[in-house]
Amino acid sequence: MKAMHHTAISTFDMDRLIKFYCDLLGFEVESEFEWPVGLEVSDKIVGLKDSASKVAMLKLGDFRLELFQYSSPEPKPGDPNRPVCDHGVTHLAFTVEDIQAEYDRLVKAGMSFHCPPQNIGAIVTYGRDPDGNVLELMQIT
Predict the structure, then answer these.
(1) Which of 8, 55, 58, 127 has its CA 20 to 30 A from that of 30?
(2) Residue 87 per-residue DSSP state
(3) What is the C-alpha to C-alpha distance for residues 60 and 10, in angstroms, rounded to an integer?
């Protein structure tokens, strides 16, 4: 292994998540594409039959976030309040320079947080994107 390249999120509203991650968090759209139902190589890679999806790769520094909006097979909705103790990816962490300023800016923009920033050696807080995915803001002290 050399490095982590990206993580991916499946969403029901691609445009909404692109707007959130780009406009509020500073990501840039690196690429966008889609594949139609019947593309065998895509089905093999994702492990689904008759898959079809829009895809956007977003970039922030050296990190990439891949967004999928599947139209086939029909996705099951996620729980926007999924507890972080449930199995699976629990959160994405972002380092920030001034956590209070970022917290205030994002709250003003409508982002929900579990609590204000807390000092636990680093200053951290968890918030949620529009789909309920948990994002950690971290100011290393």
Answers:
(1) 127
(2) S
(3) 18
- Rg, the chain, Cα only: 16
Three-state SS at 34: strand
CATH entry 3.30.720.110 includes domain 92-139: yes
What does the pLDDT look like over 55-70, one tens digit per residue? 999 999 999 999 999 9
3 state SS of 121: coil
The model's pTM is: 0.90
